[in-house]
């Protein structure tokens, strides 16, 4: 698997005179550090609202780089995070353009095009407060003069998997409008949320394969305080449905924590060695374990090498989702997939390296998605950071080592967790760039779907 390259620090102003070459097609999008707050928004700052490509071109272009944040409107804190990341990256001399366009091409039959919220006045206010200079809100006729385009961009094999399988033609519609908006806004950088991992991956691939002179930047997922990934669709959830929907993030965190527990056991098994069981217990006691006897079996299990990270992670996540299917209202699972970020194909149980654990499900009539990045491989130093980071900042090493051992020992049985009682992560986003994957459309467009 190809690893993700690190982007220049997001707070370094970009050089508009030398656009960054497209990311290699086999790589993930570059990741923005959205962990520290942006400078306070100037109360006098107001974003220009324009509706046509001509009006956008007529606006004076700044001397610095131009960044674009593509959305489908109904902006929330997740979008504001994208705008702030763009503002930091281009600096005071740069320009940040936010597009607001509900793209009909990416809605399939029976999907919620007419139901999708339109809140332009509030969107302009939020974008300006986050640091946008321009809001480009074109009409459908402006983007697609003469009706739907006869020629579209095909997403290829990656566009037929997961979200593409559930929503045929969706990514063709996403890429077509992204390409058009990149041409219309002519940015040096384009920022997208990592919650829509597959969308970010296909956009990154398109930019590389078709030589778009733009740098694609991924920004970590933003979550509500209870762990639910921010989405414009969350507003459709009733109170009980919101409670059930917490199973999506709870399943991902369960997989991450189970994997971290397994990794901790492997490290401790290596330090204890391959002594007979009584000697192993004594060796653990010498390491300061309070529950050495109970822990000996778990370490022996890890030392035997019978734990397989991908299988353990899948089982831990599926147990949470199975529990949620029995709630009232129930969660209806669309897919749970552990995939290679380079092509979104399922990884085998023996896989080592980075992977994306992605989930999609319906609660009531609302379809939600989420994902987390995991790193597999015993002893990999980056694994701990990635598994603790995920899309949140909470760490798995807050539990004592005996509790971690118990968690990994229970991996031999079907793990179980109850979504509503799962411990939520803090609301802040991670500052670990590789920890979260690239983000159902945060529109094409950044607009979280």
How is this structure best described in words?
Helix content is 35%, strand content 14%. It is built from 13 helices and 10 strands. It has helices at residues 53-58, 77-90, 120-130, 140-143, 163-166, 170-185, 197-209, 239-272, 277-286, 292-303, 309-324, 381-389, 401-409; strands at 30-31, 48-50, 66-71, 95-100, 134-136, 189-193, 215-219, 331-339, 353-363, 366-376. Strands 1-7-6-3-4-5-2 form a 7-stranded parallel beta sheet, sandwiched between helices. A 3-stranded antiparallel beta sheet has the order 8-9-10. Helix 2 links the parallel strand 3 and strand 4 (95-100). The relative contact order is 0.17. The model is unreliable at 1-13, 15-28, 33-44 and 381-449 (pLDDT under 50).
Summed up, the helix count is 13
Characterize the quaternary organization of these chains.
single chain
Q: Nearest-angstrom radius of gyration?
A: 23 Å
Overall mean pLDDT stands at 76
- The percentage helix is 25-40%
Give the tally of β-strands: 10
Query: What proportion strand?
Result: 5-15%
> How is the largest sheet built, in terms of strand order?
1-7-6-3-4-5-2
Shape: globular
Report the order of strands and helices. Answer: EEHEHEHEHHHEHEHHHHEEEHH
Largest sheet: 7 strands, parallel
